From TrEMBL:
Keywords: Signal. Residues 1-20 form the signal peptide. The keyword Signal applies. The keyword Signal applies. This is Alpha/beta hydrolase. The lineage of its organism: Bacteria, Pseudomonadati, Pseudomonadota, Gammaproteobacteria, Pseudomonadales. InterPro entries: AB_hydrolase_fold.
């Protein structure tokens, strides 16, 4: 009932906005209101790399995979892979890949838990999407379009299949944003292609949607402010010169030691600010700090349009509180209050990412308002500073505020990298969602809104599973004092 009421209310909102004429932008014939991304699409910039669509081998000598169907192709400008085991259980899993950068070549991923899916009878499909850049709108629409075309693709390849009895969606990083947005009531109401997913498994995902870009903006604004070269406005002018000055002020030798032990005393203040911006005190953060600095500083010159996905800035730091002596929930100290009063704020352009009358917003929202009563299980690494675990905290807050807190289980993994999961961690998290949806067994999880729990040296041990790490840095993680899986 909760979701139905909100869906109806959203429908009224969309109708009102459509009548106001605000959705489509300027209709003047002599004004080009296209975003940079629209121009790239219109000029045919993106091209499917059809050779890359080919499947990699998966134990071809094992009889169980001998009659597995594997199909590749292009659907409405997006490449795809589809794999269906001989003993298909009638259910389809959609896999959403992460950010691909800004190049023209469209490529696809297979899900990390591919073997698990085939061993348990699941078919799966994955799209390249029809664009690159941070185009979650294309990710949602193209993933859903592929799911809806599943039976036609099978028929075209000589295998007649019944329609899937259930659809699930999983994704990583930007693909986590795709998966999270795909199950929203707003998506049900506004998408050109909608799929009624029975459950979702966003991994290391951008679950705070545009708040990720608020975080990137707050990183550079606070970096400059601590270093004494604070910006006067946003977007920031002379960002390269300010970066050079910040590296000189906050690190002893930035080029040779970006880690926490290479900071100056002033740099220690920034270390604490970033810790709180990214999710609060927690294990693994000290190990990760240095390895993400170049990447995060690469956003210092951004203008808030998400590299042209939008025409106007969506960056907003007006609700961000900078802390270097306290943690979330505590009153600010006088020094912190003075810092927050002095730092420049990025303010979004009203309507920059507004509802549209031609499908999803340019950057789809993850409002925490599910379209139905379905289970969602997420996992996130504690050391990730590219898509920080703060995104999961935002998602929990939104789900709780909208009455869907019981539909969400979140888990922390002790790893220093972005999406730095072992195969066992990928598989276990997905399986937890499946068992919950199919058997009613709600899995256990971590409380990411409890600062004391997160600060415990053993936080994250429960769901960190030994296995082949994605990065060599994982070998340097501090050991748990409790038994791990």
């Amino acid at each position: 009932m909760n979701a139905l009421k909100k869906s109806a209310l959203l429908g009224l909102t969309i109708s009102a906005v459509a009548l106001s004429g605000c959705l489509g932008g300027d209709s003047s014939n002599d004004v080009d209101t296209r975003t940079d991304q629209q121009r790239r699409i219109d000029t045919g910039y993106f091209v499917v790399d059809e050779e890359q669509l080919a499947f990699t081998a998966l134990s071809p000598d094992v009889p169980a995979y001998a009659n597995t169907s594997r199909w590749t192709g292009v659907l409405d400008g997006a490449g795809y892979r589809v794999e269906v085991p001989e003993n298909w259980n009638g259910q389809l899993v959609m896999w959403a890949h992460g950010f691909r950068g800004e190049g023209p070549d469209l490529t696809v991923d297979s899900p990390p838990m591919r073997k698990y899916l085939l061993d348990n009878g699941y078919a799966w499909a994955a799209s390249t999407y029809s664009t690159n850049y941070y185009d979650v709108r294309a990710g949602v629409e193209d993933t859903n379009a592929l799911a809806l075309a599943f039976n036609d693709i099978a028929t075209q390849n000589g295998r007649s299949l019944a329609a899937p009895t259930k659809y699930y969606i999983a994704g990583a990083s930007m693909g986590g944003h795709v998966a999270g947005a795909a199950i929203e009531a707003e998506t049900q109401q506004t998408a050109n292609n909608f799929v009624p997913y029975a459950g979702a498994n966003p991994m290391c995902g951008v679950m705070g949607d545009t708040e990720l870009f608020d975080y990137f903006t707050a990183y550079s604004l606070s970096l400059f402010e601590v270093a004494g070269v604070g910006a006067d406005s946003f977007p920031v002018e002379d960002s390269e010169a300010r970066l050079e000055a910040a590296r000189e002020a906050l690190w002893v030798d930035y080029e040779n030691n970006k880690n926490a032990n290479g900071l100056t005393p002033l740099g220690g203040q920034f270390y604490a600010i970033l810790q709180n911006l990214s999710g609060g005190p927690r294990p693994i953060y000290p190990l990760s700090f240095g390895s993400f600095q170049d990447l995060l500083q690469g956003f210092a010159g951004s203008d808030g349009t998400i590299t042209g996905i939008l025409n106007e800035s969506v960056a907003d730091t007006t609700n961000i509180t900078y802390r270097f002596q306290t943690v979330r929930g505590q009153p600010l100290t006088p020094a912190e209050q003075a810092f927050n009063n002095s730092i420049v704020q990025a303010q979004p352009t009203p309507g920059a990412n507004a509802l549209r009358d031609d499908g999803l917003r340019w950057i789809p929202k993850v409002n925490g308002e599910l379209y139905a009563d379905i289970p969602v299980v997420t996992a996130h690494t504690l050391g990730d500073l590219f898509v920080p675990i703060r995104m999961q905290q935002v998602y929990r807050e939104r789900m709780e505020s909208n009455g869907f807190g019981d539909n969400l289980v979140q888990r922390a993994v002790r790893a220093p990298g972005h999406c730095d999961f072992s195969l066992a961690e990928w598989t276990q998290t997905f399986d937890a969602m499946i068992q919950w949806e199919q058997n009613g067994t709600k899995p256990a999880g971590d409380d990411l809104l409890d600062p004391a729990a997160m600060a415990d040296p053993d936080f994250g041990c429960e769901y960190t599973i030994d296995g082949v790490p994605q990065t060599t840095m994982r070998a340097f993680m501090p050991a748990c004092s409790i038994a791990t899986p």
